[in-house]
Amino acid sequence: MKKPHPLFLLPTILLFLSGCAANVAPRAAPENRAPVTNQEIPFFSYEHTTPNADVTPSWSYESKTHDVFTVSFDSVTAGERIRAEYWKQKSPGKKKLVIVLPIIDSIRFVGEHYAHVLTAWNGNNEFNVLLVEDTKKISYLPELSRVKTKEQMFGVLATATESIRQYVIDVRRLIDWAETRHEIDSKKIGIIGGSVSAYLASLVMAADSRIIAGVFDKGGGSWQTFFAYSEEWETMQTRNIILKRFGLTQSKFEEIIQTIMRPVDPIRWANRICPERVLLISARDDTWIPKESTRRFWEALGKPERIEYFASHKIAFAFSLTILGGHYADFKIYNHFKKNLD
Q: Which one, of 187, 221, 217, lies nearest residue 95 by Cα?
């Protein structure tokens, strides 16, 4: 019997390498949810004034479709600057905008990959992209590991809560700037964040009704569950120090964090987000983002479309961001924004 040509095995190989991604829910499930409101969340309120931004040409990506600039302005956090790489369509007319959040304290590749998908695929002429740079301090794990009293611990958690609030406001101020640009359709804005930045992306979307579509990639849920149960190395080591130092259980630690960080709990505000305009990507064997937290987040959002990789956190990213996964997640992300920003 003649052996099949190796190319005939390619679809099977790609399916295996895709990490066996499965649609947990192909569409938003109809539920009795409160209508999405445009009413401001007082905790994330600020004075809407156009930032005095510096816009300078960035280094050349030799893009055939986009010019690239660096946008920067003072953060609401004293001494910090907000910077973003702005990919501006060369073709005339108002275009959709997608804001890409970086993974906090991590490699730049993930955000760059999202930006590439939205600017380089299919001879793209639909999206402008703002790739936010990782310049703001959000993580306070080193400070938390050094506290000597419970009062100091409460103070560090309160500082982290305030930093998250200011992060959300700074991204909203970036939208204020975007609204002044004639080439941006301010009624067609989306946002994407991966890992911990998925938490931040969901908070921005909940706080700002100008964002009408979102992708939350392998992240999301409540901060207290993350800090109390994540097996990410630095988080776990910091937690072990705190539990030992103050004689706490994980559940008691979770309770303390919930009390202090409730104002920035993504699950608390999830009902302000339209489930039909959300794509959630998760990892079935995730130990960095606790699975229970992801499940509760998905349910609080109203069970939007969800893709789940049968893999761990890092392996799921490797599958979804590279040829190893056949670019399945990339197609889903691109088409999600194409459809939901119309």
A: 187
- Round to whole Å and give the CA distance between 115 and 109: 10
Which stretch of DSSP H or E encloses residue 17? Answer: helix 10-17
Backbone angles phi, psi at 222, to 5 degrees: -105, 145
What span, in angstroms and rounded, lies between the C-alpha atoms of 89 and 63?
Answer: 10
**Structure-block tokens of residue 125:** 């002429």
* Terminal-residue alpha carbon distance, the chain: 53
Cα–Cα distance, 163 to 83 (Å, whole number): 16
Does the pTM exceed 0.85? yes
- pLDDT tens column, 266-276: 999 999 999 99
CATH of the domain at 55: 3.40.50.1820
Q: Is residue 91 part of a domain?
A: yes
Q: Where are the alpha helices (DSSP H) in 179-304?
A: 196-207, 223-229, 233-246, 250-261, 266-269, 291-300
pLDDT digits over 162-218, tens only? 999 999 999 999 999 999 999 999 999 999 999 999 999 999 999 999 999 999 999
